[in-house]
Amino acid sequence: MKEPFFLTTQRTILRNLTTEYAADFYTLNLDPEVLQFTGDTPFESIAAAKDFLTHYDQFEKYGVGRFAVLDKSTLQFMGWCGLKYSKEKNEYDIGFRFFKGYWNQGFATETARRCLDFGCNELGLQRIVGRAMSENVASIKVLEKLGMTFTSTFDFDGQEGVLYEFTKKNNK
Question: How many secondary structure helices (H) and strands (E) does the chain include?
């Protein structure tokens, strides 16, 4: 998608994750608790985060991607949420990551639900998966609240991971 794109929820605006959010993206990934169950490492600098976002091409290639999540009332960057297409696995997955100040307030569920709706009802996707480390109880609860079903375990960077799926035919 070349044009800027956005979705809304009751409390948020979801916009393409672009270089304008590099400083926020960098800061989000500095928090060890935020990254604890992701397998990711912090960016070395704001410039490294900007470089990552410059080359982030999910929207251009596949019409989906991770969105910057903004508080609708303040336009503050809260984190990100969205779909990602994996060519190697030929599947779409839902992901989310928020600053700790927004944890346990329903933002992950609210934004992920909107992204699932977008994927299934506006893009016609039949299946979307969600992955989490087995120890990441909070993310697993979000996947379950979305109506996703546990399907299997897998190796998540040396840790046990769980795979959930949402299929349109089973969740109309």
Answer: 6, 8
